[in-house]
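job 3f2a | input accepted
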Amino acid sequence: MIKVETSIVFGEFVGVLKPQQPMRRLPIRLPKMNRDLAQKLMVGLLAFLGLLLLIKGPKAPKRMAWEDRRVTVESSLSEARALQTSGAWQEAVPVVGTALAADPLNQEARQLKLQLEREIKAQREFIEGIAAFDTGDYDRALNSFSAIPVGTKHYPESQEKRATAQDRLLNQYRERAERACR
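job 3f2a | predicted structure (182 res):
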């Protein structure tokens, strides 16, 4: 704030600054307040807002997107495992696909999908092998039973059928050889 008249010279320009009255911050005049009354009003207002917030209650926390994906993956995997246990491998594959769509990097879902695909392939080979065995095409049955991977549900039974098909195929070859020699 300037208290006396002051001159400032900038080259040929001379500027004169004159003292002025200080301006009020607000163009309106506020009434004088009792400080104790203002504090009591503020405490009352805060207490009212506090009660209002307590009555309303806090909002339920929002779940984050990653939590939703995790819940989706876990529920899909548990459903797929239940289907796998019941032997419904074909129906379990789309359920695992849902889990993989939510979390493509989930190793458990990937392994479960591979295991289901192995079981489906083994079941298909087993059915083909049984059909070939029943029709007497032991060569095709032997190939089908041999294609069933270790650790699948049909593996133990396929090995028994494979041995039987192998014996019957050898008997067929022996009979053909004996007929050819006659």
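job 3f2a | Strands lie at 6-10, 13-17.
job 3f2a | closed
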